[in-house]
Structures are given as structure tokens and as C-alpha cells.
Amino acid sequence: MTDAEQIANRIRNALPNIKCGTLRFWGSWFGRPYDNRHQIVDCEAEGQILLVRFDQSELLSVFSPRDASINEKTFRIDDADRVRWEWFYYGRSKTLENRYFEEFAKQQAGAIVWETNVDWYTPNLKTTSSEAAVEIL
To answer: Using 50, 70 and 90 to split pLDDT, how confident is the model at 137?
Structure first.
């Protein structure tokens, strides 16, 4: 069983009593700190990819996740090779043209590289590999 499969089992067994809140990826907030609330509703794994589904049709894909803390007070995945967050523009219809993503990849030297298809603002990302790959605060 892969690490992703083990973590997916832990998440499914803990539902619905898992920490809800605002997401951070390697120290970079999705939106403003504590400005939104994301709730996990389902989870599965495909090989080494952890797929976490949220209540507003968001999808979190964590590639090769390592060292997870998951319970009613904590949702944290300490490390991963790559993290991708996908969501529909909030308040608009859930169509492909309203589907956005932010993707973070950890480089061998520890740097985090980032890409997105967001077209209405330029995020000011301050990532660091010393922070958790994914956490809900």
C-alpha cells in the first residue's frame, strides 16, 4: 500500500470529523489568511497521488505525500513532490472556463516553483519548503 493510499484511508476513516478552515501550501495562503472555510467531503488515492475532494467541488491533488497529521484539530501533510489545488471561480457557474488551479512543485534543491491559470490578479506567493506542503488552519 502506498503512502497516498494509507493517508486516504486515514482521511476517509476520520470523516466528517476533520479540521476545516483555510488552506496553505508550503506557507502560501489560498486567499487571505483565515478568510475562507474548506471542508473535506471525500478522499481516494491513485497510486502515489492523494485526491482530496471538498464541499464546493474543489480538488486537492497531492503527489507522493509524506508524514500526515489528520484529525479534528489538525490537517497537515508535511511533505510532497507536488501539490495542485483546483476550484471553480466562487459565485460563478461550475464550467470549464471557470475552473482554476494553483500548482506547486518542490525542486530537488528545495525551492518551490508555482504556476496557475488565474487571470484576474497576480498572487504574491511566499513559499518555503520548511513549511508543510499542505495544511488547513
So the answer is: very high
